[in-house]
């Protein structure tokens, strides 16, 4: 989180937040080495803050791409789940995929926009990456801020 808070105010054009770095962390830590003489340890995990949730707070103009991985969902279910994640995290685009498809060697990425539309579908890591780069390029080409009287747009900072 510290890195996000330091870096995002510098005005990045886009953030591609492809994964949760750490969903859970130990509830408590102990300093030093623990003895292996114990037969059993109980580890309690607690949810960690989600870095993606603060991107738009720190950098509202940054184009934010999130990813949503699910298991055993239809393309329609993936789109609905991705739209909910997009809205919750204020993303501009979410790439949704299904672990079952990845395991079967049919890694399909569904690109969902803020209207809930599937704006692209790509199969395979390379095709997904290319589609993402193309969608980012198309989105970042559009002017960000404009003067309605002159029609001129200020460049990105």
Descriptive account of the structure:
With 157 residues, this protein is of the alpha/beta class. It has one domain (2-21, 46-141): CoaB-like (Rossmann fold, 3-Layer(aba) Sandwich), CATH 3.40.50. It is 30% helix and 25% strand. It is built from five helices and nine strands, in the order αβββαβαβαββαββ.
Distance from first to last alpha carbon = 23 Å
Per CATH, the class reads Alpha Beta
Note the total helix count.
5
CATH architecture: 3-Layer(aba) Sandwich
Shape: globular
Percent of residues in helical segments? 25-40%
Q: Approximately how much beta-strand content do the residues carry?
A: 15-25%
When the domains are counted, the total is 1
Looking at the chains present, what oligomeric state does this protein adopt? Answer: single chain
* SSE ordering: HEEEHEHEHEEHEE
Task: Please give the order of strands in the largest beta sheet.
Answer: 1-4-5-6-7
Write down how many β-strands occur, each being a DSSP E stretch of 2 or more residues: 9
Kindly report the CATH topology: Rossmann fold
Mean pLDDT across all amino acids: 82
Overall SS class: alpha/beta
- Please give the largest β-sheet: 5 strands, mixed
Q: CATH homologous superfamily name?
A: CoaB-like
Radius of gyration: 20 Å
Core attributes:
alpha/beta, disordered C terminus, 157 residues, single chain, Rossmann fold, two-stranded antiparallel sheet
Secondary structure layout plus pairing:
Layout: H1 2-7, E1 14-17, E2 24-26, E3 45-47, H2 55-58, E4 63-70, H3 75-89, E5 93-98, H4 99-103, E6 108-112, E7 118-123, H5 125-141, E8 145-146, E9 153-154
Parallel strand pairs: 1-4, 4-5
Antiparallel strand pairs: 2-3, 5-6, 6-7, 8-9
């Amino acid at each position: 989180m510290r890195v996000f808070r330091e870096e995002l105010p510098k005005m990045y054009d886009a953030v591609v937040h492809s994964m949760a770095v750490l969903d859970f962390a130990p509830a408590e830590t102990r300093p030093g080495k623990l003895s292996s003489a114990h037969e059993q340890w109980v580890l309690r995990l607690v949810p960690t803050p989600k870095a993606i949730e603060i991107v738009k707070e720190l950098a509202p103009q940054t184009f934010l791409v999130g990813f949503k991985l699910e298991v055993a969902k239809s393309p329609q279910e993936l789109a609905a789940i991705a739209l909910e994640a997009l809205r919750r995290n204020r993303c501009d685009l979410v790439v949704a995929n299904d672990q079952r498809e990845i395991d079967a060697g049919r890694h399909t990425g569904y690109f969902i926009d803020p209207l809930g539309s599937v704006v692209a579908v790509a199969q395979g890591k390379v095709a997904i990456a290319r589609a993402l780069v193309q969608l980012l390029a198309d989105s970042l080409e559009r002017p960000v801020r404009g003067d309605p009287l002159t029609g001129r747009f200020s460049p990105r900072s």
